[in-house]
Predict the 3D structure of the following.
Amino acid sequence: MIMDTKEAQELMRRIYLKRDKERGLERTLLRTFQELGELSDAILQEHSQDEISDEIGDVFAWLCSIANLLDIDISDALWKKYPGVCYRCGMIPCECSETP
Amino acid sequence: MIMDTKEAQELMRRIYLKRDKERGLERTLLRTFQELGELSDAILQEHSQDEISDEIGDVFAWLCSIANLLDIDISDALWKKYPGVCYRCGMIPCECSETP
């Protein structure tokens, strides 16, 4: 399954936008921290690749919810910050003197 | 700019994979929490839409780095967990009795 980020956001919009609006942006942010915590937990406890993938899907789903509430396109946001090169050193691959 | 998530992961792979490997998975997770904190901060302090978009781009970039280190495809992960419907109630839009 290859999805562009617009399709991913649209999928989440169709399933969850009403819920996201009811919950509001601040609690949606908190839920995203929680999901990132679950992903960390799955990694640290060496869960199966399937379980870790499940948690990656969740973090991305919640990031889509945040972006939907803010009416921001995730690809646009990524490309604006990283236009094909490192945003600090301007190189690909990154040649920054410190590891970020 | 419309990117599919594979292109986004490939972009981050080409710019940052060497750095991501040097940093390692645990510190990459920590940096992602930090970026999510910066996004929260930008939202709570009512920064401009451009600044908030910048932080959304960063969170997604770091999620791509995590997924690259784990060799997980973000779209596959999302679609496996959310196959066009809510993963709990099976409906679109979600009809779960509680707001998740």
Summary: Chain A is about 70% helix and 0% strand. Helices of chain A lie at 5-23, 25-44, 49-70, 74-81. Chain A has a mean pLDDT of 95. Residues 49-70 of chain A form the longest helix (22 residues).
